[in-house]
Each structure stands twice: as structure tokens, then as C-alpha cells.
Amino acid sequence: MKLIQRMMRSIGIGSFAFLLFKLVSQTHEITRNEILFVFFLSAFIGVVSLIERIEKLNYLQIILLHFISTYAFSYFLLVLLNGSVSVHFERYTLTFVSIYFIVWLCLIIRNFLRARLLNKRIQIINTRHSGISGKKEE
């Protein structure tokens, strides 16, 4: 069940990123294949991001594995859905890297803000407990 939730969350993030990209690009038409591409790729990213739980890997290894597997799967999907690669390899790679970087940047900012909020809550709890435990029994 958690895997399906993770996939659905990733589809939400991927769909948002795709629509934002379409908003700023010059092409506004959305095709069936683009929708399928975003759904399948986003779900795959949700699953492959589970590698972050492998404790034997450092952060750089996780990012590299995630990037390579995501890039390979996205290229595979592109060929599968289009029957061939109709875009230039360099242009596709540049677009992929740009989108990948923006999404990771957003996730890093989100995690930073969450950590800051949790630290504030912990600080409040610690302050309350230190006030309670600081009383002397008579």
C-alpha cells in the first residue's frame, strides 16, 4: 500500500512539473503519449527513489543510481511510446537534466523546510519538558 501511495505522490509531482514545463514552453498542446510518458515515468521515479533507504550507499551514489535509472527508463519510454526517437539526443538530455535538477532542488528545499519545522517543534517540546523536570519535589 505504501508503494502505491509513493507512486501516486510521484505522479502528482511529475504531473505538476510537466504542466509547469508546458506553461513556460512554446507548445501548449498535450498529447496522449505525453500523458502516458509522465504517468509511467513519475510512477517509476517513485519506486526507484526507494534506493535512498539502502544504508550502504552514500548520497552521491544514490543520486547517480537514481539519475541513471531514471534517464534510462525515460529514454526507453520515449522509444516505446513514439516507436522511434524523434528528438535530438542532445536536446533530450539537456531537457531531462534541467527538469531533473529543478525537481531535486524543489525536494531539497522541501526537506530543508520540513527539518526546520521539526527542529522548532522539538525545541518547544524540550523547553516544556525542561520546565516540568526543573521543579524540585518537597
Protein architecture, described:
This protein has 138 residues and is mainly alpha-helical. It has one domain (2-130). Helices cover 79% and strands 0% of the residues. The protein is built from 4 helices and no strands. It has helices at 2-24, 32-48, 59-82, 89-133. Helix 1 (2-24) packs across helix 2 (32-48) and helix 2 (32-48) packs antiparallel against helix 3. The longest helix is centred in the C-terminal third of the chain and has 45 residues, at 89-133. The termini are far apart. The mean pLDDT is 86. Pfam families: DUF3021. InterPro entries: DUF3021. Keywords: Membrane, Transmembrane, Transmembrane helix.
Note the main attributes of this structure:
138 residues, mainly alpha, 0% strand, elongated
Topology overview:
Elements: H1 2-24, H2 32-48, H3 59-82, H4 89-133
| Whole-number mean pLDDT | 86
Described by strand count, sense and barrel closure, the largest sheet is: none
Structural class: mainly alpha
| C-alpha geometry | elongated
| Number of E strands | 0
- Amount of beta strand: under 5%
Note poorly predicted spans: none
| Share of helix, binned | over 70%
Keywords: Membrane, Transmembrane, Transmembrane helix
Pfam families: DUF3021
Protein name: DUF3021 domain-containing protein
Transmembrane segments: 35-51, 63-81, 93-113
